[in-house]
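Run: sequence + zinc ion -> complex structure.
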Amino acid sequence: MTSSADSSLLEDFLAFTLAGERPAAGSGNAASGVRWTWRGAGVLLLEPTAQPTHSVLASAGVHGDETAPIEMLSALVADIASGRAPLTARMLVILGNVDAMRAGARYIDDDLNRLFSGRHARFETSREAPRAIELENAALDFFDGAAHPKWHIDMHTAIRASVFEQFALLPHTGAPLARAMFDWLRDARLQAVLLHREKGNTFTHFTAQEAGALACTLELGKVRPFGQNDLARFAASDAALRRLIAGESARENAPLRVFTVVAQIDKHSDQFVLNVASDVPNFTAFSVGTELARDGDYRYRVSHDEERIVFPNPKVKPGLRAGLMVVDTTEATLASLD
Ligand SMILES: [Zn+2]
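>> structure
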């Protein structure tokens, strides 16, 4: 039996979640035969009828105002439930920061995507801290004993314009880079991928580090309010995610530039000054010697022939990073994949 509340859970997971509803039963079977289990606000487990061949965690809304991928993921749930989207993977769908989604805000107290891997313990009074704990536990429960390979695709939209409109970020765990991930990024027609060199506190860092997931954060273009997104711009990522959960091989082999983080710009105090336009596009290049920031005695100067700036944001709280600096490592990285 499927009650009307349960069908709206599957037909419009976004609206169901924003309304703060709970399903009448905790689990059931969709029209497609897929078994669903509601695991709490914005967290939905989907299991295929046959033995799963792999595991995919797909998340969006870790930043509450990044609406397009949230709508995309909600539409994907409806298509899995109806059978329009085939599912051979065991799948966990997560809408991340539900309170911020309701408020139309990136976050309420603190950036949820800086609170993973235990950093929430230092933000006990933050309204995002309990959600970080819930999502960590949901991810660990999902990946514990799950079918390999384990994937985590965390979808975002950038605040600003970008030289590469759609790009990915891979967390650093010390594990070798996986060719399968690069093949998937090409399938999704991502134009660039950024490789972190240090451990972070993002959701994908957590799942890569703690569960061994092939994890990537996708930045899929600029933010608009719910209902005003042109989802066609996200069609390539949507199609690649659908192929991934269906167990289909990659279809696209789009060119992919690779950049590696070489430095970060730190905000130490409220004296911080960023010497670039506030709307400078991500991946804007600067040549050696350029002074990009100052803060008291601290200076950031470009030390490589060319460095590109990513996520410049002078408005972050002191103690946080105000920008990442990357260099092109396309040839060396692609040659290193086994
Ligand atoms: Zn984001």
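>> summary
The CA atoms of residues 32 and 84 lie 8 Å apart. The chain has a mean pLDDT of 94.
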